[in-house]
Amino acid sequence: MIGIDLIKSILLLYIAMCGGFTGDIFGCRVKQMLVNSLYAKHLMLIFMIYFTVILTSDDIISPIDNLSKAIKVWIFYLMFIRLNLTFTIIVFIQFVSLFIIDEYVNYYTKKESDNIDAEFLEKIKTFTKYFEWIIGGTTIIGFIIFLVHRSRKRGKQFNILDHLLGDMKCKVK
Length: 173
What we know:
This protein starts with a helix and ends in an 8-residue tail after the last helix. The protein has one domain. Helices cover 76% and strands 0% of the residues. It is mainly α. Helix 5 (85-111) runs antiparallel to helix 6.
């Protein structure tokens, strides 16, 4: 469904976002635009995803396909960051687990070791395909649950665009 390259992209993106506390090094006008405009933030995010997708893929892919993949990652990322804490932890653990499993598959595939059963390796590859669908399903279910919760909580003040793109005012406790 989402693929290991997309998982790697999202993990790299998440790490980059966590390291995003270095915004003070920008010039004043750029800093002001990025602080005050959600659209500018999301445009920069899409560019960051686009470059991340390119850097994490070993294949030669057309720029249009890379842009399409970047937009899919952006949409998936929007859902991922709109999960409640429990679903965020579950999906993050699933991401890391799939990443580690994929690293083992790559290791044993490239090593061409006689110690690993080829049939077992194929079973792991099949499992990872199903696990990707499980991650996608978990994310979608968590997103819908949080969307319903937020819409009921805010009532008529609920705005789907604000929910998806974010709110300039965060109520961090």
